Amino acid sequence: MKNIISPVIKKVDYSSESFEELTNSIAGDEREFRLLVKFPTVYIVFSKIKNREYEVYVGETNNIERRTFQHLHESREDWQELSKIDSAKMFVIGHDHFNKSLTLDIENKMMLYMTSVPQVKKINNRRENQQDDYYTADEMDDIFSKVWLQLQEYDKDLFPVQSIIEDSAIFKASPFHQLTSQQESAREDIIDHVIDALNENKTGQLILVEGEAGSGKTVLLSTLFYQLNQLKSNIVSPNIDNLNSYLIINHDEQLKVYEDIAKKLGIMQKNNETVLKPTRFINKHGVDKKADVVLIDEAHLLWTQGKQSYRGKNQLEDIMDRAKIVIAVFDPKQILKTEGYMNTSSIQRLRNKASNQGNLIELTNQMRINASDETIQWIRDIIDNRMVNKIPKDPKYDLKIFDDARKMYDQIKLKSKDSSNGLSRMVATFDWKYNGNRGPEDGGYWMVSTGNITLPWNLQLPVPKLTGRKNSELPWAEQPQTINEIGSTYTIQGFDLNYCGLIIGPSVKYRNGKIIFDPEESCNEHATRNRTMDDGTKTTVYDKLLPNELNVLMTRGVNGLYIYAVDDQLREALKNADR
């Protein structure tokens, strides 16, 4: 952290006497008076809903006296709600380097963190205020950290340790992240396309956002979902005032995350589902009354044939029939199941549809993995080219090959215990038996067993009770007991790990200088069973889906990837590549 001067923070009652209480508390201190009364400030109004649960408003202002008066006396619903609570408090935050751009950025980052605090159940603010470059922009992160640490001294429940928040899935999916220039350009293009299409009553619009794992698709989609829900408030147009938008989530673990975000931001009301799974959306909405905008996270997981409660033939096509505009994020290298399989021509038709409407957007920057281009290319060569090349030297990324699965697990446990290393877990290719509906015949757990390690597959160990947010509501990797389990693609897809310990099972082999995939060694029936094609013939597509499984697992680790291969020849090739 740079040598940044400490902020000034004062806590006062949130009432008509707030400003008087504030000025009395800083009387005689020229610096504090200047920073809190004369300078721009950031403020947080909060109230306990019940024990250890909060409602919060975050804002910034050039005049704290006038803004407090507005909050207490004007009729905006979110302001009035807190003004009626006698126990509400307010933090007023000042700093010598605050200017309008910096306070807007601090406000935005405070929204990012507050949305991610488990104890915060509702957060009020109608803006998203990312700023471009400005004087003191390089100090923003350090100033924010000093502000957060000082706020922690007042309330550790409302302001937990930063690293704990940053490890959470809700933080990583928050709509308040600062976008890269590529994401920002995509966001502007998409919002413009949506406004134009709605104003011109266009239907059948497909906006396709393509990008490989870690390219920033999730953050872009979350930002769009939040901002589209703000359009009603900020744009006067008969076609936008009553805009209805939905977010479709394919992954059970991610569904919890987005539901939490929507509830906290007031996007999802009690009887108004705005975040839901694809089949539920299709069954609830007819083609005669189209939704305005439907956003789809991980559209590569949609089904392209009927299954269970879904009686159609293609979920994406059925959703497009029920929406004027569909915004879908898509990565064909993450298709995992036969029921979602798309051949090359089907994928190209999808791209052509979006491209012909001027709606094909490609994200190319790798944002998840903190590694050199050479390291990322090494990973891509294994997955895409099925080659094991020499592992490059990379001071930024911890890539290790293990000859002993137990030693790898021990290292992952050490990383997990050290909060500075963040969230670390074990994962494996789906090469051991598992059935989520029942246990093995002899009772106990379904196990991953190889070499000198035996651990339960994901989602089997009892979930410990936790005060505050229930552990069972957390994604798999955030539940504390899962350090003693091994995750699969179905629990980890869409999520980050700081350090990922990967067991490459026996379905991935190395023969004659090439990686091959053996369906006989895989227990992933979703990838190895026959797929019925459009002409009624049945065929296997495991040679596309098993590499995709490996792709998902090898791209989880933000700061490190540890690998143990079961196949002797693959393990030897990896060890040679690491010499």
Q: Could you describe the 3D structure shown?
A:
The strands form six sheets. Strands 8-7-9-10-6-11 form a six-stranded parallel sheet. The chain has a five-stranded mixed sheet with strand order 1-4-2-3-5, sandwiched between helices. Strand 20 (531-532) and strand 21 (538-539) form a beta hairpin. The mean pLDDT is 90. With 579 residues, the chain is an alpha/beta fold. Helix 5 packs across helix 6 (140-154), helix 9 (181-199) crosses helix 10 (217-234) and helix 15 (373-385) runs antiparallel to helix 19. It folds into three domains: 8-166, GIY-YIG endonuclease (3-Layer(aba) Sandwich); 181-362, Rossmann fold, CATH 3.40.50.300; 373-577, no CATH class. The relative contact order is 0.09. The protein contains 20 helices and 22 strands. It starts with 7 loop residues before the first strand and ends with a helix.
Question: What's the SSE blueprint?
Answer:
Blueprint: E1 8-13, H1 18-25, H2 30-38, E2 41-50, E3 53-61, H3 64-73, H4 77-83, E4 89-94, H5 100-116, E5 120-124, H6 140-154, H7 162-166, H8 169-172, H9 181-199, E6 205-210, H10 217-234, E7 245-249, H11 252-264, E8 275-276, H12 278-284, E9 291-297, H13 315-321, E10 323-330, H14 344-356, E11 360-362, H15 373-385, E12 398-401, H16 405-417, E13 424-428, E14 447-450, E15 453-456, E16 486-487, H17 489-492, E17 497-504, E18 508-511, E19 514-517, H18 525-528, E20 531-532, E21 538-539, H19 542-554, E22 557-565, H20 568-577
Parallel strand pairs: 3-5, 6-10, 6-11, 7-8, 7-9, 9-10, 12-22, 13-16, 13-17, 17-22
Antiparallel strand pairs: 1-4, 2-3, 2-4, 14-15, 18-19, 20-21
